[in-house]
């Protein structure tokens, strides 16, 4: 009888070991399922982050292209203005063009006005004008050059700010 009692103890130990193993397998399966869920969640978060990063990179590239195009446009505009200013300076230097100013006809200072240039035998109906000294004309052209350059630079800055704000 004593032998049967030992068999029951051994059977109980085997049964407990088997229950323990089954619980370990179930726990391992739960951990594996949980790990798979975490891995999927991390994968989805990673993919979402990659999509956001790609969208931001696409925006940045579009902005860079827009700014590059705008920069080329403003550089061309500045180049054209400088070319026109140089041509006007050359024409002033060679006396092809002369700058003149309108005189105030109501001025009572007594200065005699220089008549506007007319062809021989024609009647002058234009307002009286005075021709400027070429050196003064060059200075005036220089001032307008600076103003033109400032306006072009201002438009470029405004376009840049508008592009960045969007």
From TrEMBL:
InterPro entries: I-spanin
Source domain of life: Bacteria
Protein name: Bacteriophage Rz lysis protein
Source organism per UniProt: Pseudomonas poae
């Amino acid at each position: 009888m004593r032998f049967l009692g030992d068999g029951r103890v051994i059977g109980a130990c085997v049964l407990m070991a088997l229950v323990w193993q089954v619980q370990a397998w179930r726990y391992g399966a739960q951990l594996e399922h949980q790990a798979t869920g975490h891995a999927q969640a991390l994968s989805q978060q990673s993919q979402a982050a990659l999509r956001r990063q790609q969208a931001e990179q696409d925006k940045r590239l579009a902005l860079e292209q827009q700014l590059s195009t705008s920069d080329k446009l403003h550089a061309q505009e500045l180049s054209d203005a400088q070319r026109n200013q140089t041509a006007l300076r050359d024409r002033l230097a060679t006396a092809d063009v002369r700058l003149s100013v309108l005189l105030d006809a109501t001025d009572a200072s007594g200065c005699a006005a220089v008549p506007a240039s007319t062809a021989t035998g024609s009647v002058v109906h234009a307002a009286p004008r005075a021709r400027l000294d070429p050196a003064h004309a060059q200075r005036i052209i220089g001032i307008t050059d600076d103003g033109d350059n400032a306006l072009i630079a201002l438009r470029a800055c405004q376009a840049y700010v508008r592009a960045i704000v969007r």
